[in-house]
Design goal:
By secondary structure, the protein is mainly beta. The chain is built from one helix and nine strands, in the order H-E-E-E-E-E-E-E-E-E. It has one helix at residues 2-16; strands at residues 28-36, 51-52, 56-60, 66-71, 77-81, 85-91, 101-102, 105-109, 114-122. Strands 1, 2, 5, 7 and 9 form a five-stranded mixed beta sheet that branches. Strands 4-3-6-8 form a four-stranded antiparallel beta sheet, with no helix packed on it. It starts with a helix and ends with a strand.
């Protein structure tokens, strides 16, 4: 009986180590992943808006530790639950080329809201 009690306490202690509080529903980051510019010269009558991008994005906390990662949809949209705090979002490099190049984006999440952000990739077109 004594061994069972010690085993339970030890298991609970190990489970508590390194775990982060879970994100609260309704709290996190939402937005779009886009790549641009999409043409070498933008003109008034011929705009070149950024294009949506489906890719994987890594979310890092203030210490640089990975908190989670997510994949944006074909329309570039995403929504991820996170606890309140400040984060850096970094898209993964696509393929073996250095372009498009992901641009790190910072976001501060407040309890009970979704912070809207656009995550940009530089296409390299100039």
């Amino acid at each position: 009986m004594k061994h069972v009690f010690v085993l339970i306490i030890l298991t609970l202690a190990i489970a508590a180590c390194g775990s982060q509080p879970a994100a609260q529903p309704g709290t996190g980051i939402q937005g779009m992943v886009q790549v641009g510019p999409t043409c070498p010269v933008e003109r008034i009558n011929s705009p070149c808006p950024p294009h949506p991008l489906a890719t994987t994005v890594v979310v890092r906390d203030g210490t640089g530790a990975e908190v989670t990662r997510f994949h944006s949809g074909a329309d570039g949209r995403f929504k991820v639950d996170l606890r309140a705090g400040t984060y850096t979002l970094v898209g993964l490099t696509i393929g073996s080329s250095s372009l498009p190049r992901p641009i790190p984006t910072s976001a501060t999440v407040n309890q009970g809201t979704y912070t809207s952000v656009n995550i940009e990739y530089d296409s390299g077109i100039r």
